[in-house]
Amino acid sequence: MKTLVLTACAAVTLLGVGITWSQAPIQTAPITIKPDTAIVIPTDQRILINSKLLAGTAEGIYLKKLTAEFIKRCTGKAVGCAIAAVGPNGMWSEGATGDARRAPDGSPRKMTANDKFTMASVSKTFTGLALQRLLYGKRISIDDRIGPYLPTDWKISTRAVANVTFRQLLTHTSGLQCNGITDDQLKTCLATANPVPSPFAYKNENFALMRILIPQIKGGASSTQYANLYRDYVNSSVFAPAGLPPMECKPTDAVPALSYKSATANKWDFSQVGPGEIWGDMGAVCGSQGWFLSAHQMAQTMQAIMTAGKILPATLVDRMKQDNLAVYFGDHGGGLQSWNHGGYHPAEWNKGEINTLIIHFNNGVSAGVIINSPYGAGAAGNFFTDLIASVKAAG
To answer: Which of 20, 52, 160, 327 is spaced 20 to 30 A from 98 at the CA atom?
Structure first.
């Protein structure tokens, strides 16, 4: 390295701006300036800032506010509410209010975020994810036709049935019109159907048919195995990567949580309720509905679904979000967006009502929500609206 030495009579111009040093003294050693107030802390006593820990702490505070805000809004509007939320740094918060079981049923107890209920149509997201993962592994495009993968012993009415694509099933644009979701009902439907691809028309049959297609695509399935093979594949391809144990399409708790409706003339008066709905074994029709999870398990699964590489590669996660493939995009204003799917079995058709929701926000938070009755306070209520308000109120 060359050292520039300024002699006593030297003069140089710095950067051509006309600043000169004239007769500059020669510095023979560096000058160290130590203020009298400086404190030197030994290396082994220094505190290092852990940015990940700080982010996790802030996330935990935010999630607690979010769940507390929702429980505040939910209290008194339903027999029971539960919410669980997880952030991108792995922090959790959960909350619940009301009852999981109450009179006239035995073993009354409070609701928790670990009580499992039927997911109703939230099951469609799990089924749709399993199908997309299987198609990707088999190098089958979602724009391919389902015809080659239908059971060979099923009579297909027209070429229009065979020409339905996987994308059309995933987006409810197939035009299929059926009258049931059991294997036999689907078989009968396809023998007479003449679907015309159409704009969005929500039909359970689109996802119920995936219970047949998934085992068929995997190969070696028979008509007596469809339901079991479907459940096995969803467990191995969706729930296991999410860190869940094997899940079922039926109640598995010793004393299951129940769903309720008012026994009074007022739908939202829960001072008296009838016997609760247990929902029962839905294994034979699982696909468009039927899976049983808790709010915690819902949030955990949704976070895995939206984490690239957990269940789907990044390109497929992006496509799923962009094309509404088994999830739906929502813009809630103020920069808040989400991808979600809800579930609903109405009180009018059952001994109780269930409302469920899985949702992932663009701030990285995933949540699961369960309401085990109609929702409102003297008039129709909307728990989704209350959830969005809670997210915004949490900051």
So the answer is: 327
Residue 368, beta-bridge partner list = 84, 358
How far apart, in whole angstroms, are the C-alpha atoms of residue 208 and residue 36?
78
In what side-by-side order are the strands of the sheet with 337-345? 109-110, 92-101, 80-86, 366-371, 354-361, 337-345, 328-331
The helix-helix angle for 123-137 and 226-234 (nearest 10°) equals: 90
| Chain segment 30-71, per-residue pLDDT in tens | 555 555 666 777 777 766 566 666 677 899 999 999 999 999
- Smallest CA-to-CA distance from 317 within 329, 331, 307 is with 307
Record the pTM. Answer: 0.86
CA 350/CA 195 separation, integer angstroms: 31
Spatial contact of 259 and 316, defined as CB atoms under 8 Å apart: no
Fold entry, domain 64-393: Beta-lactamase (3.40.710)
Q: In Å, how far from its chain's centre is CA 98?
A: 24
CA distances from 338 to 120, 158, 201, 328 (A): 20, 39, 22, 8
Domain boundary assignment for the chain: 64-393
Residue 37, pLDDT score: 65
Amino acid at 348: E
The Cα 42–Cα 188 span in angstroms is: 80
Is 101 in contact with 275 (CB distance < 8 Å)?
Answer: no
Give, in order, the Cα–Cα distances in Å from 363 to each of 51, 210, 256, 360: 18, 32, 34, 8
Which two three-digit tokens encode residue 151?
């059971």
- Within 10 Å of residue 219's Cβ, how many Cβ atoms? 8
Q: Distance (Å, rounded) from C-alpha 10 to C-alpha 197?
A: 88
Q: Residue 363 in contact with residue 66, Cβ under 8 Å?
A: no
CB-based contacts of 281: which residues, under 8 Å, 6+ apart? 249, 250, 251
The candidate with the shortest Cα–Cα distance to 321, out of 309, 335, 305, 336, is 305
Instruction: Please state, in angstroms and as integers, the Cα–Cα distance from residue 333 to each residue in 65, 365, 391, following that order.
Output: 20, 17, 12
What number of other Cβ atoms are within 10 A of residue 347's Cβ? 18
Helices (H), 306-376: 314-323
- Give the chain's mean pLDDT: 89
Extract the tokens encoding 52: 């990940």
